[in-house]
Amino acid sequence: PSYKLLVLPGDGIGPEIMHEVSRVITWLENNRNVSFDLTYDLVGGASLAEYGVPIRDEVIEKAWASDAVLFGSVGDPKWGHVGFDKRPEVAILKLRQELGLFANLRPAKVFDALIDASTLKPDVVRGLDIMIVRETVGGIYFGEPRGIETLEDGSKRGINTEVYTTSEIERVARVAFDLARKRSNRVCSVEKCNVMESGLLWKEVVTDVHAREFPDVTLSHMLADNCAMQLVRNPRQFDVLVTGNLFGDLLSDLASMLTGSLGMLPSATLGAVQDNGKRPALYEPIHGSAPDIAGQGIANPIAQVLSFAMLLRYSLNMLDDADLIEQAVSNVLASGLRTADIMSEGMARVGTSVMGDAIVRE
Ligand code: NAI
Ligand code: MG
Fold this sequence. Notes:
The protein is built from twelve helices and 14 strands.
């Protein structure tokens, strides 16, 4: 088979780490029965410099025409002072919005070789492998009414409203249940139904979708504040977590630090299945463009490589090849190679391309 991928390296370390992915792609083409039709384009600061906008409509169209989008990162301090529409970060916001990417998948997985990087005790995180599914286009970040009003006495009030509809909850719940079937078959749904009406509806709808479509999956419910506590106390009790935009924002950042290594963590954002059977999807590391180390050849390419493995798994159903890449990364870490960000005593410090070499060889 042949697949169309849109590759958007972006700014800072983006192009450096994307280069290592391109070598993994070449390996797959040479060794597996698959070919990739890659289209590269500029986004973020790189696009601002060339075209005066953070992303062109043409790039959005190319994204629609692809099987999946592989994204690096955007952001460059050079553009920090300009207005909102001219900020590099608008590129990723616009892609999410235009492609309707409503479900953000953030795995938090602890590699045995990096167990010491966790901020928690090794006993608590050894073997940790959880997946947080965050709703990303609804909830309190977008609900109406919103704004800052001036009251009669001249004082002000700021308003945000959490709104969730049945269909918004159903579609993200389905993503979570589907994922659970490919993992340990457990979903924990997180809200605050004790104090929020939107949370009450969330719980009701997730329960309905479960009963109607996924009775084989084990479903539990947890209040968000308790979930934050449980993620630190005993994170391995979870498999898939599904939650709204606000709680998912906080809990996924918290969960990323259970693994302790920003340069290791991939993510996926999925949209709705279209009439032609395609589902728009974008894969990117959770870290940013790391301007402080850009151009030095020392960035860790693993989050970007693992983002590509997620692309194979969730967009192309190439499960064996995704496993192969994840295993290669694990073996390379076990062999003692480390980029600077994950370096520890007694290990061999290497740069971006040597790490890429090692992964391809493995
Ligand atoms: P950052 O994630 O870029 O960097 C935070 C720290 O982690 C830095 O010290 C960096 O050197 C290090 N780091 C990150 N990724 C690394 C890797 N692969 N290997 C080794 N070290 C790594 O976050 P920061 O500094 O807050 O943001 C920098 C720029 O990136 C900003 O313009 C920000 O808006 C943007 N950003 C973009 C994102 C995206 O494209 N989705 C996400 C987060 C930030
Ligand atoms: Mg956040």
